[in-house]
Amino acid sequence: MATKKLVVVSAGLGQPSSTRLLADRLTTATREHLSLLGDEVSVEVIELRDLAHDITNNLLTGFAPPKLQVALDALSSADGMIAVTPIFTTSYSGLFKSFIDVIEPTAVTDLAVVIGATGGTERHSLALDYAMRPLFAYLHAVVVPTAVYAASSDWGTGAGAGSTALPDRVSRAAGELAALMHDSVRSSRVVDPFALPSGFSPTGSYGEE
Questions:
Q1: Most buried by CB count within 10 Å: which residue of 91, 112, 144, 161?
Q2: Pairing mode, if any, of strands 148-151 and 3-10?
């Protein structure tokens, strides 16, 4: 029985948070689907709120502190990724984007990814397709067709409420991720600690000076 590596990135700021809750539901469903395919799975959960200071230091110095480096190494060797962020001002959170900015440019190349997001109302659900999906496409990740958005009103929705109920969306996205992970032959990416940030430009256009 093969063992697949799943990395779960949660950008929730609260503790507990609906963002982490959605990430956990996607993780459980992905485990179940992989089990049906005959795969075991090891899961590494990355809580970005616990790495916020390290991420900032990495942005300022170009070097990842040890705790952040462990997370980056886990991502570079994963077979699949679940990425969930709260939606702030119609897009992913600044903490989530800052984490993406410090990963090695090829760390998620060919990586199977489920994107998820949480927010107060359904109005922000399109942020998954106009913000998160293009972000991972730029990084050459393989994003599954089904994205999962959970508004406040979605929590507690039963499976019998219709095909758009949250449990149905979670199961569908997890099934798509499991199928890609099952067929994954992705090798570990070697991370160069001296590599320039993915957004670096010699003209000085990377970030604020």
A1: 112
A2: unpaired
At 163 the pLDDT is 41
Burial (0-12, 13-18, 19+ Cβ within 10 Å), 119: buried
Confidence of residue 58 (pLDDT cuts 50, 70, 90): very high
What's the confidence (pLDDT) of residue 16?
A: 81
Homologous superfamily in CATH for domain 3-182: Flavodoxin domain (3.40.50.360)
Paired strand residues for 40: 3
**Residue 62, pLDDT score:** 92
Q: Hey, where are the domains in the chain?
A: 3-182
Average pLDDT over residues 5-12: 97
Tokens of 205: 């256009």
Dump pLDDT digits (tens) for 72-118.
999 999 999 999 999 998 899 999 999 999 999 899 999 999 999 99
Residue position matching structure tokens 């989530």: 96
Q: For the whole model, what pTM was predicted?
A: 0.84
